[in-house]
Amino acid sequence: MTAPAIQRRSLPPTGAAVQRAGAMAAAKLGFDSNPFHGIEFTPAFVGFAAYMLAIITYRFPIGTAAMSFALLTIPLEKQSLRLPAVAFLSIALVSWAFLGMTMTQYPDLVVDAVSNFAKVCAVVFVASNVITTRNRFRALTVGSIILWGLFPIRGTIFAYFVYHGDVEGRAAWNYIYSNPNDLAGLSLLQLSVAMGILAVERRKWVVLGTKLAVALLVLIIILTQSRGAVIALGAFGVIGARKYFTNVRAIFSVLVLAGLVYLIAPDSVWRRFSTIKNATKSDAALYDPETVDLATRQDQSSSEQRLAIWDVATSIISNNPLTGVGLGAYPEAHYVEAQKPEHKWLARGKRDTHSTYLNVTAETGVPGLLLFASIIIITLKESRSARKRMGKIAPALALQLFNMEVGLYAFLVAAIWGSYGSMVPLYVHLVLMHVASTLLVEHVESLQPNRGRRKFFPAPAPAPAPVMASRSGEASA
Fold it and tell me: What are phi and psi of 252, to 5 degrees?
């Protein structure tokens, strides 16, 4: 009797072979193509893209209309609607702020602020449900760098070097970018997006344009002369360097960039940064006109004023620990509190807190701060978890996510000295990190569909091939 033919079937690669194949797939995942080809256009996605155009450039007053259109058409998306943690906690924060509106002494101000923050929640919800594919994510990140280059970056560089439209020697532009501290903070976030793009993109014009944007963003952060942002930029470099310390080309590029920035930036920039070490001191000798120049005395006065403002803010928090004074009402509450004799006259007036954490706590109480912190912590935890689990299989995508994560860390450092709690770009960045984490996990699982499931759902063994008896076999039997 003739033996049955052996049935052979190809087995999927395992171990190192899977990792190599996955790394190659992640590195190439269409990143050598035009980032604006192959986008799945829907009405909601178009509305959100138009909103991003409005909030980056501030040249097209279509933000509210675009977001309203996106909200109305989002049920038309193919995927079912979802509410990730970043969106849920943002809604919880605005709900808590709404509750505080009923207890504030400044209801008119709080109503407007809560309404504006509710729009931020809408942005988070829409972004979470329209940035659902790798092509959309690519288009929005690369598109944001292009818009930043054409408007905030170009405008700031021209204003500083050509038109001399600075703020007491500090770089600034228009609209939300008119405050040097805010411009520096937002530039940190965009710098991390640009670094993420360089980790994955292979299209030549995208790489070259993004490298130029990185260099100019670093220069702008320096030219704003924001001491908090420069400390944050240092943190960016220290945290991010561990991924690049073996990359000779990257190290050389950083050294060249540092040299160019040093040569381009005026002496006033470095003089202002030299006062960082005295930022927490209140020494009469620092105001001696015979030994200290006028510019340095002004910088020291600015630092002492910030400390006096923080003293007022902590008093307001201790008096309103549960619900705060109401979202958007801090300047009015500060004006009243600063009149008390125990506070320095430097803090008088309708001031800002000059600190995100003090601002959020003073306006929404300790519960509001905990909700705000939860949004940040959960997003970072989700990002870190995705990188640790999938980094070896998709290193390029994991590095992109890491760079965005580092940018958020740096932004949080800068937030010690700047009030960024209600800024839309912060929440857009958090959504982008959430989406990048989700897409990373989905990509790796598509490479290994049985990853993590075989223990509980083993694949059924293939049925044995039936033995076909031959006619001669039947006769001999």
Answer: -65, -40
Q: What 8-state DSSP symbol labels residue 464? A: P
Cα 89 to Cα 85, 92, 97, 216, 362: the distances in Å are: 6, 5, 12, 34, 19
Q: What is the pLDDT of residues 341-350, one digit of tens each?
A: 999 888 889 9
Q: Is residue 321 part of a domain?
A: yes
pLDDT digits 0-9 by tens, 438-463: 999 888 887 765 554 443 334 444 44
Structure confidence at residue 472 (pLDDT): 38
In a domain, 138, yes or no: yes
Residue 7 lies in a domain: no
Residue 412: which H helix or E strand, with range? helix 395-414
pLDDT at 272: 67
Name the pTM for this structure.
0.83
Q: Of 329, 322, 324, which Cα lies nearest the Cα of 106?
A: 329
Res. 169 pLDDT band, cuts 50 70 90: confident
Q: Please indicate, yes or no, if residue 72 is contained in any of the structural domains.
A: yes
Distance CA 126, CA 424 (A): 13
Residue 166 has pLDDT above 90, yes or no: no
Q: Which domain holds residue 198?
A: 22-447
CA separation for the pair 87, 117 (Å, rounded): 12
Tell me if 226 sits within 8 A of 184, measured CB to CB: yes
240, 69 Cβ separation under 8 angstroms: no
Instruction: Yes or no: say if 193 and 436 are a contact pair by the CB < 8 Å rule.
Output: no
Query: What single letter denotes the amino acid at residue 345?
Result: W
Distance, in Å, from the CA atom of 188 to the CA atom of 172, rounded to the nearest integer, reads 15
* Number of structural domains in the chain: 1
Spatial contact of 408 and 111, defined as CB atoms under 8 Å apart: no
Question: How many C-beta neighbours within 10 Å does residue 258 have?
Answer: 13
**Cα gap 275→271, rounded to integer Å:** 7
The letter for the amino acid at 233 is L
3-state secondary structure of 170: strand
End-to-end Cα distance, the chain:
10
Burial grade of 110 (CB within 10 A; 0-12, 13-18, 19 or more): buried
- The answer to whether residue 45 scores a pLDDT higher than 90 is yes
Dist. CA 65–CA 69, nearest whole Å = 6
Which two three-digit tokens encode residue 4?
């049955």
Beta carbons of 217 and 407 less than 8 angstroms apart: no
> Distance (Å, rounded) from C-alpha 439 to C-alpha 133?
7
Which of 27-31, 62-66, 464-468 is the most confident on average? 62-66
In this structure, how many other beta carbons lie within 10 angstroms of the beta carbon of residue 428? 24
pLDDT at position 375: 97
